[in-house]
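Hi, here's the filled form for the chain we discussed.

Project: internal
Contact: R.S.
Residues: 171
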Amino acid sequence: AVGAIDKRHYTEQGRQVGSALHKGIELINNGVELDPASIDQLVAPHIASYRKWREATGFVPVWSEREFKSERLGLIGHPDCLGTLRGRRVIIDLKKYAPEPWHRLQLEYYRMLVKEREKVDGIAIIETKATGAMAVEHDAHDATGSDDAIAALRWYRWLERAGKLKGKDTA
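And the returned structure, exactly as it came back:
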């Protein structure tokens, strides 16, 4: 979303670690046992952090890293995973740092996309820890979430039609 993401916090190394973390957790969620020697030292603590959270909460993944597209909403998204958490079907978004305000909108878009095809009861951010400590769960649900997401999408579409978006300002 335009102006919502402070890009100063994102580096190429951070992007690579995040991609490796997501791939590792996708494999774990699909029942693949990872060889510890194959996991990068920057990624390993985050993987351990997720595993501790998953074991402590009993989270059972249904799917990981799927693409969802909605012609109605004009959106495409790639939620990290959906699974059963405390008896509820919850979309999980993995972050290797504390959640930022725009993450709630990101998850709300995922919820809207997935809900067009299947049941979703909630959304949560799982903040993995570089220390390997158990991940922290952040409930991303907000009573006004859908309204905020639709309003932000309408604002973006207006900026797009008005020719106010320039190059990479769209991320």
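Let me know if anything looks off before we file it.
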